[in-house]
Amino acid sequence: MQEYLIAFAVGGTICALSQLLMDKTKLMPGRIMVILVVTGVVLGAFGIYEPFKEWAGAGASVPLLGFGNTLWKGVKKAVDEEGLLGIFKGGLTASSAGICAAIVFGYIASLVSHPKLKK
């Protein structure tokens, strides 16, 4: 039960900080998303993200910080195995399952909810 509470608190804190950035700055949501992804990459590169993710569980791995860390791990692994070419394909290889799931489930949700265009 404690794992769920920690995950909820960490994920909620990340989301609340992102909302504060949107409310208190002139940053557009797309730029805030980029900040979150790059933060996950940087924390992964310095070896800080993995211990944090082990402690926080899904609260740290599901938000965009986790996506950035996944990209980092994929690029690092591909560069170690294939050299500089791994920079271009490592992140996509590591995150392809999550990206594909987002597309498929987004499509299914659009079929179920019958979205309409804004006028």
Automatic annotation (TrEMBL):
Alphabetically ordered keywords of this record: Membrane, Transmembrane, Transmembrane helix
Keyword Transmembrane: yes
Keyword Iron-sulfur: no
InterPro entries linked to this entry: Spore_V_AE, SpoVA
A Pfam cross-reference name: SpoVAC_SpoVAEB
Transmembrane segments: 6-22, 29-49, 84-109
NCBIfam families tied to this protein: spore_V_AE
UniProt xrefs under PANTHER family: STAGE V SPORULATION PROTEIN AC-RELATED, STAGE V SPORULATION PROTEIN AEB
This protein's name: Stage V sporulation protein AE
Species per Swiss-Prot/TrEMBL record: Anthropogastromicrobium aceti
